[in-house]
Structure formats: C-alpha cells, structure tokens
Amino acid sequence: MSTSDINFVRQQFPALTNGFAFFDNAGGSQVPVQVANKISHYLLHSNVQLGASYRISKQSEAMVATASGLWAQAINAADPAEIVMGSSSTALLQNLARSLAHYFKPGDEVIVTNCDHEANIGPWLGLEEAGIVIKTWKINPDSFQLELEELGKLMTSKTRLVAFTHVSNILGSINPVEEITRFIHERGALVCVDGVAFAPHRQVDVKKWDVDFYVFSFYKVFGPHYALLYGRHALLSQLPGINHYFIAREDVPYKLQPGNVNFELTVGSTGIIDYLDTVFAQHFEVSTWDLFSRLKQVFDLFTEHEEQLTRRFLEFLTSKKNIRLIGSVEFSREVRVPTFSFVVENIKSSVIPPQVDGYDIGIRWGDFYARRLINDLGLSDVDGVVRVSMVHYNTVEEVDRLIRVLDRIL
Ligand SMILES: Cc1ncc(COP(=O)(O)O)c(C=O)c1O
C-alpha cells in the first residue's frame, strides 16, 4: 500500500489517530468505524428476540442470517449453515470437542501439537475422559517447524482427528495447511485448524484447503470479541448436538450454539467485511467482482505492506547480537506473518515491555497461552518471549520508532 492508501486505511480506525503505536495486534486488533456502527445500529434499532412473528423480529432474524451468508462467502464456505458463531475460539473449540466426545469411540486417537495456543489443545486433552487416546506432534525445536514425517509416525488407523495451528501466535510462521490437511485426509483422519493468528493477515479459503474445522476470532481481525468456527456441513450434520435436548440433530449450526449467538456481535462482525470492501473500493474500480474475489485483492494489498514491515523489523532483530529471534528469519510472505517473538541475552522478557510503554508503544511479553511451546523451548525461566505483532495498519514510521526505542534500551 502506498502512503496515501495507508492514510486512508488508518482513517477508518479512530484509535489510530491518537499517536499510540499498537504492536500487540496478535493479542487484539483495533476496530474500524464500520464495525462499531454496525453493532450500535443493531442495538439501537433491532434489539429484539429472534423467531417471533412480528416485523422487527423477522428483520433482525434476516440480519443475523445475512451475517452467516456473508461470512460463508468471505471464507469460501459452501453453505451459511457451516458458519458456527460463539463468544471466543476457545469456547467454540470446547463446544466442538464436547460434541466429538460422543462421536468418537474409546480407543480412537486424536493428535494435538505442542505449538498451538491452549485453545486448540486443552479441549482435545479433555477427551481422554471419554477414553480417547491423545498424542502430541512436536515441532522441531531447531527449525521451529512441524514436520510431516513426525506426524506420519504418530498416525495410526485409529487416528480420528489432528488439531494444529495455521500460524503459531509465538512463531509467526505459516504452516502449509493444504498440504498438511491432504496428508491427514489420506490417512483417514479429520483436521481442526486454529486460524486465529492467520486470519488477520491472509484470506481464509476453507474450500481450497479442504479443512474440516477452522476457527478464528473476530477481535484479532478488526472486529468485536466474538469468533467463528467453520465446519464442513456433511460432518456437522452427523455430530451430536450440545444444545437443548429438543434441538434436532439436523438443526445445523444451532445445535452447536447453546444459548444462541450474540445477535449484535454476529451482525457487527459484518462491519469487518464492510471495512474490507471500503478498502477495495478505494483501490479498485471493478464493481462486478464477487465478495471473495474483492477480499482477495484487499488481502493481497495487506500482504504486500506487511512484507515490507516484516523485512524492516527482521533486519533490525537479526542485526542485534544479543537478541534471539524465536521463529523464522525469513521475511517472505509465504513463510511468515508479522508476529515476532524474541528473547534478549541476560534480560528477562518481562523487563522489556515496561521500558517501551513510556514511548506510547504497546508491545508485550509472556507465553501468550502457548505455554507448552514456551516450556518445551525452555523459555519459561526468562518469563517467555517479548512479542511484537503488526497488522496492515501499522506504518513503516511506527516500526522505525519502535526500532529506535529497542535499539536504545537493548
Ligand atoms: C493462535 C490463537 N488461538 C486461539 C486463541 C484464543 O482465542 P479466543 O480468545 O477467541 O478464545 C488465541 C488468542 O490469543 C490465539 O492467539
């Protein structure tokens, strides 16, 4: 994106006008006006219970249904019924695991990784109570990569599901989800992919990747604290429900949405799509493209810009002798997103962000709930890693500002 384009982008986010540099985007991103307006409009004009016969209830029902339809198009799902909404990725995965606990049989096997956020590990470990055997696919601690050869050794004819992350929220590297999924499907198992750290940076395409389950959180993708789980329809329709006993098995996705969706946030989440479409309209004149194609163009713009930021920041990190990057040194768009974790020689990670705070720059330290990874990499004693995470609205000037501060204090 050129300077004028990035200015346009930033103008959509009121929080970006106050001079603060947000580099904790993998924790949570800022929200454009389109999202806030959608939530507020729903609450102020349509806040009724769905399912009644009166006009406003029908109107609200249509708005919620439209939201599922838009998200299905945005992520290339075949059917709006494949879009399950919930309060967080953690809650959605816990619900999914609860359902699968009654679908799998004792003795079946599930594989998790040691580099996922706990949201895509803990719920699966809970299946042990139902007699499911859990195995762990560990990354190579030198290359920080998940290797298919290792996965092949763990898989057996009893493996029913492999849960893995598209991008680790610590490492920032992109796992080849299509290739991994093919490998797992060839061996007869399902995949459940955590796309939380991927979705803010690249377009989600569940059809191309052929994934069975894919989850991400709107609050990291410029939206509200809310989340989406994609599930293949043929599979969702077979799963036991976790809603009230009288909600039919055919009632997809409602049987997996106990207590129903949050109406204002479901509708509000489509403000993200409005925002992305506003960026599209600013850059392209074509109006006949379908939503998925428009979003692809927008994410390509973001990717280009993010690669520039990545290159700059990685050059700095790798030039400092006392900094150890936890992740790939490659800057290319195919390899990573702009989420960087590092440790500094002889300094605990917890000491660094507070020294940056005074410059109106937000970074943070910790294990980011990828505690098993931090433990396995031997980084618990240094209080985990320092993490700097960028998205498309960060500027080269902000990155340079952060570099100057880090250079001074490290
Ligand atoms: C990679 C990843 N997965 C899952 C989660 C959990 O998301 P949620 O807060 O929506 O449960 C996070 C949150 O930080 C994350 O970074």
What does this structure look like?
α5 (122-125) links the parallel β3 (109-113) and β4 (133-137). The protein folds into two domains: 3-31 and 290-409, Aspartate Aminotransferase, domain 1 (Alpha-Beta Complex), CATH 3.90.1150; 36-272, Aspartate Aminotransferase, domain 2, CATH 3.40.640. The chain starts with a helix and ends with a helix. The strands form three sheets. Strands 2-8-7-6-5-3-4 form a seven-stranded mixed β-sheet. It has helices at 3-11, 33-45, 55-74, 89-101, 122-125, 148-154, 177-186, 206-209, 233-236, 263-283, 291-319, 352-357, 371-376, 396-409; strands at 21-22, 83-86, 109-113, 133-137, 159-165, 190-194, 213-217, 227-231, 323-325, 339-344, 361-362, 364-366, 385-389. The model has no long low-confidence stretch (mean pLDDT 97). 46% of the residues are buried. Helices cover 39% and strands 14% of the residues. The protein has 410 residues and is of the alpha/beta class. The structure holds pyridoxal-5'-phosphate (PLP). Pyridoxal-5'-phosphate is lined by residues 26, 88-90, 117, 119, 165, 169, 194, 196-197, 217, 227, 369.
Brief summary:
The protein has helices spanning 3-11, 33-45, 55-74, 89-101, 122-125, 148-154, 177-186, 206-209, 233-236, 263-283, 291-319, 352-357, 371-376, 396-409; strands at 21-22, 83-86, 109-113, 133-137, 159-165, 190-194, 213-217, 227-231, 323-325, 339-344, 361-362, 364-366, 385-389.
